[in-house]
Design brief:
The protein has no helices and 11 strands. Strand 9 and strand 10 form a beta hairpin. The termini are far apart.
Amino acid sequence: QVQLVESGGGLVQAGGSLRLSCAASGRIFSINAMDWYRQAPGKQRELVAGITSGGSTNYADSVKGRFTISRDNAKNTVYLQMNSLKPEDTAVYYCRAEVVFGKRAIYWGQGTQVTVSS
């Protein structure tokens, strides 16, 4: 069993910053991709940013230049630094990880709320 625990969400004014963290624990041999998704009310869940075990990254066009994803493989933790936040960034942010332990499996965190006020 693997658990992903997110932290760092909250309420911030437009233009502000937040840093999300997601720590994986449990039966883990290695972790391949780690991603951040978000889901706003009434909308589908969307990929925000992803990072491979080797450090290659990809971003949604809407967050390029404002968000930075990084990871600490020794701690099985992924981060999302969010700068210049906009009201449209308001959503529940979810961490997703592809964990290897004999086989590959996808795990999701419980989500953390990010609210950006105008």
